[in-house]
Specification:
alpha+beta, Lipocalin, six-stranded antiparallel β-barrel, three-stranded antiparallel sheet
Length: 450
Amino acid sequence: MSGDEDMSPDASPGSVRRTSGVRRVNNLPVYLVGGAMGIFLLVMALVAWDRSAQQNRPADQLEAKAGSTSMFASEIAGSEKDGFVAPAKAAAPPLPEIPPPGAIIVARPDDLEAPPRPPGGALPLEEQRGMEERERSRMDKLRQLDEAVRSRTTVQAAAPRSAGSAPGGVPLSREEALTQMAALQQQADAQGRDNPAAAYLARLQQLQAASLGDTASRPAPPAEPAAGGKDYRQFDVQGQGDRWRLDSRAEAPRSPYELRAGFIVPAVLISGVNSDLPGQIVAQVSQDVFDTATGKWRLIPQGSRLVGQYSSDIAYGQSRVLVAWQRIVFPDGKAMDIGSMPGADSAGYAGFRDQVNNHYFRLFSSAFLMSGITAGIAMSQPQTLSLGTRQSASSAMSEALGQQLGQVTAQLIARNMNIAPTLEIRPGYRFNVIVTKDLTFSRPYKAFDY
C-alpha cells in the first residue's frame, strides 16, 4: 500500500512538495515601516523650518501679546488705584512777552474776518435789551415783596351755618328741606353705585324683598344695632319682657305625614359635576324616607329623582363645590318643589368634594414663560450709548416693538395664571340632602293615587 511504501527505508524525501518547509517573508511590511519613517522625518523637518521662520520674523510683524482683563485695567487706570481721580491741574497761563525798549506794540484782533467793535467797549443791542428786561423783572419782584411785607395779614371768612338754616340765616321750609334731602339721597345713591359693598347690599335687599313677596302690606322689621364680635348683648332679648322667657311655643305637626327640618334624604349622584361651568345635576334617592313622628309612613320612596344646581364660583384654594337641590320627582310622575336645600357629604360637611385640579403645571409653565419674556424684553433694550452717539431709527423702532410686544404677552400670561381650581364630582357620589324646611304631605306615598 502507499502508506507502507512511504515508511520504508528505501523511500527518498526528494519528492516533497514545494509548499512544505520554511516560507520567505513578504516585502510589504518593510515598505510600510519605511513609509512611516519617511513621513515622520518630513513632519519633523517642517516643524523645525516653522520655528526657524518665527525666530527670524521682524519685530513689527510679531503678534500682540495677550493679557488678562486686570492687566488691561491697570494700563488704563495708570497710577490712580485708590478709587479717586484727582482733578486735572490747570495749566499756568503763559507770561506775556516783554517787548524790548523802544519797540512799538501792535494789538491784533482774535478774528481778522469779524468787523471791528465800536470804541468804548459798548455791548450789542440784543445784549443791552436782555439786561434791561432782567433788571425790570428784578425791580418788579422787589416791589411785590415790599408790598407783601407792608400789607396786613387778614383772611375774609364767613361764619358757619347749620344744615337746616338758609344762606341768609332764615330757617328752611318743609319743601326746601325735602328737596335738600332728596338731593343728598341722590348723591348717596350715585356714590353707592361706585362702591362695590353698597351695590352688593342693595342687591341683597332686592333678593330678600323678592323672596318675601308682597312686602308693601307688611311692617318693616325693626333695625337691630350692629354688635361687635365680642359683644354678648347680641344674644340677649332686644325688647321689654322676661329675660328667661321665650315667645315661641311648641307646635304640633300640621299633618301625621310630615318630614321636619333637620332630617336628611340619602341619595346617589347620577350626573357628574365640573366647576368650569355652572349647570344642573340629577340624583336618585337611595333609601325610603319616612315621617318624623312615627317613622312608619313612607313619604319619599326609593328611586325618586332629585333635580338641583351647582355653583361655579370657585375661589383659589377651594376644594368643595356648593350644590342646591330644588325639586323631587316621584316614580309615579308626581313632583314637589323643595325650594333650595343644600347637599352635604356622608359626614355632614357642606358641599361635595371628590377630585381637585389646581392646574399646577399650567401655573408653573406660565411662570417660566413669563421669566423668559422678561429676559427677552431686557435683552431687546439697547445698552447705554456712549457720549456723542445718536440712536438710529431702526434701533429705536426695534426697541419700542420689543417692549410693547413683551408687555402685551406678559399681561396675557399673567391673566392665564389667575385661574381657579377645577372641582370634579364623579357620578355615583353618595351624599345627603339636608332638609331645611318642613315637608308636609297630605297622605303617605302611593303610586298613581291621582
